[in-house]
Amino acid sequence: MDRLPNLKALQAFRFAGEAESFKAAAERLHVTQAAISQQIKTLEEQLGVSLFNRRPREVALTAEGRQLLASISQGFSIIEQGVIQLTGDPTPTQLNISTLPSFASRWLVPRLGSFQNSAPELTVNLTPALHLASFEGDHLDLAIRFGKGHYPGLQSVKLFDEYLIPACHPSLIDNAVSLKQQISKMSLLTDDSPDLAEAWNQFKKISGINFHDDASKLQVNDSTLLVEAVLAAQGLSLLRFSLIYELLHRGQLICPLPVWIKSDFDYYLVAPPSHFKRKKVQDFERWLDSEFAITKTRWTDFTDSFSK
């Protein structure tokens, strides 16, 4: 066959075949029954097979018709799904989010209740993951990622300029002893995040502290575990301000030195460009902006506190 049949004829056949009714297809496509009959007749002539057995008051698919219908229905379904992914929202009552476990537990989940109160019609599905989630398929609306904002094929919106600060449990500091001497003897707690490797070198240079070679070290693969280790008074760590500023405010952790280092990575809201047109995503983005505005204010208060 040199060329495919007319799409209108195939669509007419699809609806007529699924209902085994020319009348139902005509109503579905808002045309006359005679128009459906003519389109299918033209299709049969082009294919050289009979697709329907015609009876006085009904039509029934032939074996060839059933075979073609399976392929045609699947093809149109794929086309419709592609259009929905590009222009629509396949799950308008659900907001599906992927993000890092540390950000989910330390920042997002404690605040998420206020968003759900403002959008009670939405069910929020949160998937914490260390890997970068894929937007293939229609299950994921957006992701909150920690990186440099460059994600091929995706749109990214920066949420917060992240900083790393030294933090430890207050019980580890004795005000009667030299602060730098105490810090130099602390165990170092770190994770394998790429933004921390160079940050430690910068911290040592800025602070002027030479850590003992025999200082024990703990390395984990998630910032949540790192925060827990610091809360348990196991040593000193460089932690992301956004994840611990409430712990600092409550006195559960302290920043022993007026040192902070700009992280190479920041938090970004990431999704295909078409997803940002969805109302639920726009509502969530506005809510994130308002919540991060508070985090930014806390950062200003934190840095100002060392100049007083």
TrEMBL record:
<dbReference type="InterPro" id="IPR000847">
    <property type="entry name" value="LysR_HTH_N"/>
</dbReference>
<dbReference type="Pfam" id="PF03466">
    <property type="entry name" value="LysR_substrate"/>
</dbReference>
<dbReference type="InterPro" id="IPR058163">
    <property type="entry name" value="LysR-type_TF_proteobact-type"/>
</dbReference>
<dbReference type="InterPro" id="IPR036390">
    <property type="entry name" value="WH_DNA-bd_sf"/>
</dbReference>
<dbReference type="Pfam" id="PF00126">
    <property type="entry name" value="HTH_1"/>
</dbReference>
<dbReference type="InterPro" id="IPR036388">
    <property type="entry name" value="WH-like_DNA-bd_sf"/>
</dbReference>
<keyword id="KW-0804">Transcription</keyword>
<keyword id="KW-0805">Transcription regulation</keyword>
<dbReference type="InterPro" id="IPR005119">
    <property type="entry name" value="LysR_subst-bd"/>
</dbReference>
<comment type="similarity">
    <text>Belongs to the LysR transcriptional regulatory family.</text>
</comment>
<feature type="domain" description="HTH lysR-type">
    <location>
        <begin position="5"/>
        <end position="62"/>
    </location>
</feature>
<dbReference type="GO" id="GO:0043565">
    <property type="term" value="F:sequence-specific DNA binding"/>
</dbReference>
<dbReference type="GO" id="GO:0006351">
    <property type="term" value="P:DNA-templated transcription"/>
</dbReference>
<dbReference type="GO" id="GO:0003700">
    <property type="term" value="F:DNA-binding transcription factor activity"/>
</dbReference>
<protein>
    <submittedName>
        <fullName>LysR family transcriptional regulator, glycine cleavage system transcriptional activator</fullName>
    </submittedName>
</protein>
<keyword id="KW-0238">DNA-binding</keyword>
